[in-house]
Design brief:
By secondary structure, the protein is mainly alpha-helical. 58% of the residues lie in helices and 5% in strands. The protein has helices at residues 2-24, 47-66, 69-78, 81-92, 94-102, 122-136, 152-157, 189-215, 222-228, 243-265, 272-300, 325-349, 355-375, 385-406, and strands at 32-35, 42-45, 164-168, 175-179, 183-184. It has a 3-stranded antiparallel sheet with strand order 3-4-5, with no helix packed on it.
Length: 429
């Protein structure tokens, strides 16, 4: 348990910060024109495409490290678990040293107000806006114009008195609108828009991604249990689970250098919503493949529908464990679309100094998926395993249809929004 808690603490400190920090090293978040030195041709640099490529390559490199699990699976089987624990620890030892060496070269954003903000704390302001909108809408969060009431220009225009005074608050240095002397607005229309966009992304993460994770390789250790019911020919039961990073490593450069440029050359707009929908579809195919394979296991196992702990004859189905490859591959490829796009949304829709927090909420969806897995643990046993694969697939299909209808605006929404005073970006006007 000490190991688990230390790992959770380290993960919570590291994972929500690493991708935002890497993307922060590319400071140009607005489209700009660049003249090629070789030909003199003027080209438009699209920050959304650049950020997408950065995150995709970063996600591929993360899985290079995850590939270390394959030799460790054999080490645990052939030598002992002590080596499987020791070797990754030795690999990790140089990392704090590298961070200390390079930290002065990195652009590191700090929590709280940034240099382009007029003052105040992003997180506190977001809660103020959400609370105000809830109260004014009488907690009807489904109201069509839920956010409009929180926009100062909208709210003040509905005032019965025309006595409006606009000036600057000396304490917060933010634009403050005094409505009849009763309210000091310490946020702008831009702040309301940023809060709306960030909350929309968080809703996607917290409501859609737990089901997605349940479809990516199955619930809990169900794929490992399924492998134990198949003919392995000496391979470790969890070997194929470790093939997930290998598939991602293969598809990352393929998408970066072949698929996405080819789609762009044919002017195919494979936008954020389409990429996520395609990824969800691949995750559904992963679960359907697992359900079909489990059905075949029940048909061919010496113990029929009680194949997991079978002790009759060989105790396993004659089907090779390598038939699990489609289950793993579909799930791994889906990550290149779902997870990478989710990181993009977390970065682009978060407040300037709240990107790590929104990324943490994305990662929190893994915890919610684990909770859901624990809730249905009593039925994760023979002879119900086909339905354990099939149920999440059906649920994710329905949720994907809902996603297409509910969040269709993410395909037409701006990638990032800026206030007027933030026109200067990385030295460009």
């Amino acid at each position: 348990m000490i190991s688990f808690f230390l790992l959770a603490l380290g993960t919570g400190l590291f994972k929500p910060n690493i991708i935002p920090m890497i993307v922060d090293q590319y400071p140009s978040h607005k489209p700009y024109t660049h003249t090629l030195p070789s030909s003199g041709e003027a080209v438009l640099v699209d920050p959304e495409t650049t950020v997408q490529r950065i995150i995709l390559i970063c996600y591929g490199l993360i899985n290079v490290g995850a590939l270390f699990g394959i030799p460790m699976a054999f080490s645990a089987k052939k030598i002992g678990f002590w080596l499987a624990f020791l070797a990754p620890g030795v690999v990790y030892l140089p990392i704090p040293v590298l961070l200390l060496v390079f930290r002065r070269r990195l652009l590191a954003a700090t929590p709280g107000p940034g240099k382009n903000k007029k003052g105040g704390d992003d997180l506190a302001r977001a809660f103020q806006i959400i609370g105000f909108a809830l109260r004014k809408n009488r907690f009807r969060f489904w109201a069509a114009n839920f956010w409009d009431i929180a926009i100062p220009s909208t709210s003040t225009s509905t005032s019965t008195s025309g006595n409006l005074d606009t000036n600057t608050d000396s304490n917060t240095s933010r634009d403050v609108i005094r409505d009849n002397g009763n309210r000091n607005w310490k946020w702008t229309a831009h702040d309301v828009q940023t809060t709306r966009r960030a909350l929309s992304a968080c809703q996607i993460f917290l409501f859609l991604f737990p089901l997605y994770h349940l479809n990516n390789g199955g619930i809990g250790s169900i794929s490992t249990s399924q492998a134990a019911s198949l003919t392995t020919n000496g391979a470790p039961n969890d070997l194929l689970n470790n093939l997930n990073p290998l598939v991602i490593i293969f598809f990352t450069p393929l998408l970066t250098h072949v698929v996405y440029p080819l789609l762009a050359s044919y002017k195919v707009n494979f936008s954020r919503g389409k990429r996520m929908t395609f990824g969800f579809t691949l995750a559904i195919l992963s679960s359907l493949s697992g359900a079909f394979l489990q059905w075949r296991v029940y048909k061919t196992s010496p113990c029929g529908e009680f194949a997991t702990a079978c002790d009759i004859g060989t105790g396993v189905s004659p089907i090779s464990v390598w038939w699990q490859v489609p289950v793993i591959a579909f799930g791994a490829i889906s990550e290149c679309f779902c997870q990478v796009t989710a990181y993009e949304l977390a970065y682009a829709r978060a407040p300037v100094n709240g990107k790590a927090l929104v990324t943490a909420l994305l990662l929190f969806s893994n915890a919610l998926a684990s909770v859901l897995g624990l809730v249905i643990t009593p039925v994760v046993k023979d002879p119900y395993l086909v339905w354990v694969w099939l149920g999440p697939a059906v649920a994710l299909f329905l949720q994907t249809c809902w996603f297409q209808w509910k969040y269709r605006e993410i395909d037409i929404d701006e990638f990032m929004v800026f206030e007027e005073e933030e026109e200067v970006d990385a030295g460009r006007v």
